[in-house]
Amino acid sequence: MNTITLLGAGGKMGCRIADNLAKTKYSVRHVEISERGKAALAQRGIPVVPINEGLAGTEVVILALPDNRIGAIVTEIAPQLDSGTMVMALDIAAPLAGVLPKREDLIYFVTHPCHPSVFGDEATREGRRDFFGGVHAVQNIVCSLVQGPEAAYAEGERIARAIYAPVAKAHRCSAEQMGILEPVLSETVLGTCLTIVREATDEAVRRGVPAEAARDFVLGHLKVELGIVFQAFEGATFSDGALQAIEEARKRLFRPDWKNVFEPEEMMKSIRQIAGKVPG
């Protein structure tokens, strides 16, 4: 598969992908409808093609589009896609919500970045400041062949490695496992907990702690406590006093049944909302 059509090429994610694909031998057709997106591509010297021209005979379509628009857009363009075309989504929401057209002759592949690890060993400042990945910092990715022949997985992973480069590991997951990773693990749980950490930091400042001291203190403790929780260094353990504080705080900060967010029905409720599909 050498010909790729990038839909939403001028968006934030689209431009990241366009930049990385420009370093490869793939033949890329860039499709963008917004004037802002077209301007972003023009700054890169990348021409835009009409969608019909971009789709004609293409082998891969990458969906750098909002999750809640993917179902409608893919349904609209599906009649123009040749049998065997790979449709690559950057999030599992639309495929798992069932909003993609029922065409068994198309390949549905999903890939998503893990983003650079907090335990990464980037040697340069640029690498350490590449929080998202795909520019300077090495990251890992997850991939899923949702629909299509087994032989298609290897090509999908190759393209995924190209658009998220530099990539170390590519983890193969099922569609359901991808849904557990995002939104449940990364957004429902991690995003919520970290938002509370930021709110707690702001509360410390409101109560008189100097803002710079509070930020330095919480970010430093975030690193060491992540190291402890994930056993990243020898002797990683909390003090007895910290363990007692954690146990008592869990009763006040979390409901006993909080892990219910991982239950399939709860996960699908969130995914349907993300994909723009009315629950039920």
Keywords:
seven-stranded mixed β-sheet, alpha/beta, 7 strands, 2 domains, 280 residues, 11 helices, globular, Rossmann fold
What's the tally of helices? 11
Count of extended strands: 7
What is the CATH C-level name of the largest domain? Alpha Beta
What is the averaged pLDDT score? 96
Which CATH architecture of the largest domain? Answer: 3-Layer(aba) Sandwich
CA distance, first residue to last residue: 38 Å
Number of spatially distinct domains: 2
Strand content is: 5-15%
Descriptive report:
By secondary structure, the chain is α/β, with parallel strands linked by helices. The protein folds into two domains: 171 residues, NAD(P)-binding Rossmann-like Domain (Rossmann fold), CATH 3.40.50.720; 95 residues. 47% of the residues lie in helices and 14% in strands. The chain has eleven helices and seven strands. Strands 2-1-3-4-5-6-7 form a seven-stranded mixed β-sheet. Helix 8 runs antiparallel to helix 9 and helix 8 packs across helix 11.
Topology summary:
Blueprint: E1 3-7, H1 12-21, E2 27-31, H2 35-43, H3 51-55, E3 60-63, H4 67-77, E4 86-89, H5 93-97, E5 107-113, H6 125-128, E6 139-147, H7 152-163, E7 167-172, H8 175-206, H9 211-229, H10 240-253, H11 264-274
Parallel strand pairs: 1-2, 1-3, 3-4, 4-5, 6-7
Antiparallel strand pairs: 5-6
